[in-house]
Amino acid sequence: MSYNFENIRLEKGMYRETGKSFTQVLEELDPSEKYKNTPMEGMDAYQRQLKRFGIRAKGANSDKVEKFFSTSESSVLFPEYVSRSVKTGMEEGNILPAITASVTRFDGMDYRSVYSAATDDDKSLKAVEEGAEIPQTEIRVSDHLVNLHKRGRMLVASYEAIRFQRLDLFSVMLRQIGNQIMRMHLDDAIGVIVNGDGNDNAAESFKIGTDITGTAGTLTYSALLEFWAKFDPYNMNTILVSPDIMLKMLSLPEFQNPLTGLNFQGTGELTNPLGAKLIKTTAAPEGKLIGLDRGYALEMIQGSDVEVEYDRLIDRQLERAAITSISGFAKLYDGAAKVLEV
């Protein structure tokens, strides 16, 4: 049986299609719907091209990097392999979905978000008498632009150095690059949560011993409860902590409940007596605990997905090939994120 994917002509120009990824271009030429009830059902158009050229990209018996460069057409598949491997690394341990309320796609580097300028009076629930004016919530455009940042790493390796490496091993190196890029985006996100996005909206900060009952440098459960109570009308459902604060929290008797330990051993997630999702990350500032209502605190603006210098990769010029991703973050509701300084 003859399949359409065997007759597609691959060329560099497929990476230049405006608003389309390489895989999307392939899917238009070779729709996956046509492969239902065939041995290739479940594969996407790119995976069918790997099969076409006999390239095994995963497993102990994966091919060597040089297999991509067996023909001029198969070499066109290499940048997509790099991109997919980097994306896999970005998705491993990615906590951004747990702290962002919305993701906005934006083609540009300067973005102007919207926010609700609500006072305490605006948030209150009032009865509306017949004929009376209905209370209003005003949505405004941010005063300052939110700058998107290009984050990336430079892939530095000669073709001679990697040509005989197995693809399964090489993908580990690429996944680590993706992990490093995602860490940069997380640093940006936490920086915006704490310091604001340039629109005079830094998170309100409380200090134990000054604003919160207790002794500076000592974390207690009562201090956490007092901090939790500061969030009304929002709900503190997510807590970001640095490793030093995590150790202090785990030392609290309230966190040593046997059921908490069993859940951690079984799922890897630490339950919280306050009901919030507890996330440990070195991107959080030391000595501080960040609480937020993930449904209202932060907007992620994605300028581009993973981009690779496909020309260099196809031509085997790996000595300095950039791998980048563009994103930025905007605060939505000021009161939905707060900081506790221990």
Would you summarize the structure shown here?
With 342 residues, the chain is α/β, with parallel strands linked by helices.
Describe this structure in words.
With 342 residues, the protein is α/β, with parallel strands linked by helices. It has two domains: 52 residues, no CATH class; 195 residues, no CATH class. Helix content is 29%, strand content 19%. It has a five-stranded mixed sheet. A four-stranded mixed sheet has the order 1-11-12-6. It has a two-stranded antiparallel sheet with strand order 2-5. The chain is elongated, with a radius of gyration of 25 Å. The N and C termini lie far apart (68 Å). The mean pLDDT is 87.
From the structure above, extract its key features:
2 domains, 10 helices, 342 residues, five-stranded mixed β-sheet, alpha/beta
Could you give the topology of this structure?
Blueprint: H1 22-29, H2 45-52, H3 78-91, E1 102-105, E2 110-111, E3 114-116, H4 120-123, E4 139-141, E5 146-147, E6 149-155, H5 159-162, H6 167-195, E7 204-207, H7 221-229, E8 238-241, H8 243-250, H9 258-267, E9 277-280, E10 288-292, E11 298-308, H10 310-314, E12 321-331, E13 337-341
Helix pairs in contact: 3-6
